[in-house]
Design a protein that fits this description.
- The complex is a heterodimer of chains A (about 325) and B (about 130).
- Chain A has about 325 residues and is an alpha+beta fold.
- Chain A contains eight helices and 15 strands.
- Helix content of chain A is about 40%, strand content about 30%.
- In chain A, the strands form four sheets. In chain A, strands 1-2-6-7-10-13-14-15 form an eight-stranded antiparallel β-sheet, covered by helices on one side. Chain A has a three-stranded antiparallel β-sheet with strand order 3-5-4. In chain A, strands 8-9 form a two-stranded antiparallel ribbon.
- Chain A starts with a helix and ends with a strand.
- By secondary structure, chain B is of the alpha+beta class.
- Chain B has a domain at about 40-115: mini-chromosome maintenance (MCM) complex, domain 2 (Sandwich), CATH 2.60.320.
- Chain B is built from four helices and eight strands; from the N terminus they run ααβββββαββαβ.
- The chains are: A alpha+beta (about 325), B alpha+beta (about 130).
- At the A-B interface, helix 1, strand 1, strand 2, helix 2 and strand 6 of A face helix 2, strand 2 and strand 8 of B.
Chain lengths: ~325, ~130
């Protein structure tokens, strides 16, 4: 009798074990899906810097998505170049363009550059191409004559960009340069393309500007590092599921002249590089906005950071270096 | 008689086993989720691609001489096909440990198993 009950007991236990295993597998299939997902990563040179793409997608689609992302990056690299054979170069050379004929990329960049300029007292300005060229960034940076800076300053700035009817007009000599927003914008465009193609989670990093996100059920938490502006180590680790992180720093491209450090971030008010802000990191929804806001705050410092509407960001970190080389950190917002 | 009470059909504690098993299965990482396992890096001219070793796959990459085929199977990887004249890369055995490397010099392509430390590094750096 005891033997019978023991056998019965162990049999029921076995049924319970198998049943719970099957139930767990069914729940997993319901939550995660039956398709096999692959995570792929690619690092490649583009836009004068390096890009990193991470894609989680169905095995059959992942390769095509990655190659499409790379193709779009190269297309935008060409179209948004100040010089070369793309649309922006053509606009700069002609000095005008019919607005209905402009691509959605140029329209977006113009509209949002004007918006960022309006909320930062024009400290973000995409019409600084002549000044950037004069200073020789990024390939041949040098200190120009002050008279040349004054002349370049006169033909720089959004005041030299006008709309007449359906025509966009640039003052003679004015060059549009979206370098302070283009990397972030390209990251956003590539991210959107990959998601539209079926990627379940995506990260795009171009020259340090990052856009990432994914389906909630995938649960991919992205671990992002922010570089220390005065060292080779990491200043901050950030974990987000969706969003963007953009950083501007005076350490990316700079030179010394007579003991003074000159970085690539130019102040639209003076025509000279900003000084005092070592780096600015913005965590927000879109990399384009983060990229442009980080540039504006690099120029305007914490006063500009304090005036940015709450709705445009989650966190701003400003690292300041005073005349004695002392570093302080200022923060607004949280993750 | 005592033993009859000891072996009842059910005891409340018996439920602990299936509950733990249920939670354990649910918590197992699925494919595509972030794990700290080794990955395969495929280096071509100007490009680096990362693949999960736990997903069997066959894929092509572009080398200097043309398309090459790489296979991942049972957590191992090898160059399966190459247009190079010597075919040394194709004859090389499977690689499966961090640091293991297979190279096709004429194609400018090499594959390497990346270490666990690499996979624990951040996904990207903002600078």
């Amino acid at each position: 009798m005891n033997l019978f009950r023991r056998k019965l007991n162990s049999g029921i236990l076995l049924i319970i074990l198998i049943g719970s295993l099957a139930a767990a597998l069914l729940v997993r299939v319901f939550l995660v899906g039956t398709t096999e997902l692959l995570e792929m990563k690619n690092r490649t040179p583009v836009l004068g810097t390096f890009a990193t793409y991470i894609v989680i997608a169905e095995t059959e689609a992942a390769g095509l998505i990655l190659s499409s992302m790379d193709s779009l990056a190269r297309h935008l690299d060409n179209e948004l170049g100040v010089f070369g054979s793309g649309e922006l170069s053509d606009l700069n050379m002609r000095g005008y363009a019919l607005i209905p004929e402009l691509s959605s990329d140029i329209i977006y960049l113009l509209e949002n550059s004007l918006f960022i300029a309006s909320i930062t007292d024009s400290l973000f300005d995409p019409a600084m191409g002549v000044l950037v060229e004069l200073w020789g960034f990024p390939s041949d940076p040098h200190l120009p004559d002050s008279s040349d800076i004054d002349a370049a300053l006169a033909s720089s700035g959004l005041s030299n960009v006008r709309i007449s009817g359906d025509t966009l007009l640039l003052t003679s000599g004015t060059l549009l340069d979206f370098g302070a927003i283009a990397k972030g914008y390209t990251a956003d465009r590539i991210y959107t393309l990959a998601r539209e193609m079926g990627a379940r989670a995506v990260l795009v990093e171009i020259g340090g500007e990052i856009r990432c996100g994914g389906d909630p059920e995938i649960g991919r938490l992205w671990t992002l590092a922010v570089r220390n502006p005065r060292g080779d180590d990491i200043m901050e680790m950030i974990e987000i599921e969706n969003g963007a992180v953009a950083t501007s720093g005076d350490y990316e491209n700079y030179f010394f002249s007579k003991g003074t450090r000159f970085c690539h971030i130019l102040d639209p008010r003076t025509g000279y590089p900003e000084s005092g802000t070592a780096s600015v990191t913005v965590v927000c929804a879109d990399a384009a906005f983060g990229d442009a806001l980080a540039t504006a705050v690099s120029v305007g410092g914490i006063d500009t950071a304090a005036d940015i509407p709450d709705s445009l960001f989650s966190l701003i970190i400003v690292v300041i270096e005073d005349e004695n080389g002392e570093i302080t950190e200022w923060r607004r917002g949280s993750l | 008689m005592k033993s009859d009470k000891k072996y009842r059909y059910f005891r409340l504690n018996d439920l602990a086993i299936p509950v733990v098993l249920f939670l354990l299965v649910l918590s197992l990482p699925g494919r595509g989720e972030n794990t700290s396992e080794s990955r395969l890096e495929v280096h071509t001219e100007g490009n680096t691609l990362w693949y999960q070793l736990e997903v069997d796959s066959t894929f092509s990459v572009a080398g200097n001489l043309g398309e090459m085929e790489i296979i991942i199977e049972n957590g191992m990887a090898r160059i399966a096909r190459s247009p190079c004249p010597g075919q040394d890369c194709v004859r090389q055995s499977w690689i499966n440990k961090p640091g293991d490397l297979a190279v096709c010099v004429p194609s400018g392509v090499f594959i390497v198993i990346s270490s666990e430390e690499d996979s624990l590094s951040p996904d990207a750096v903002s600078y």
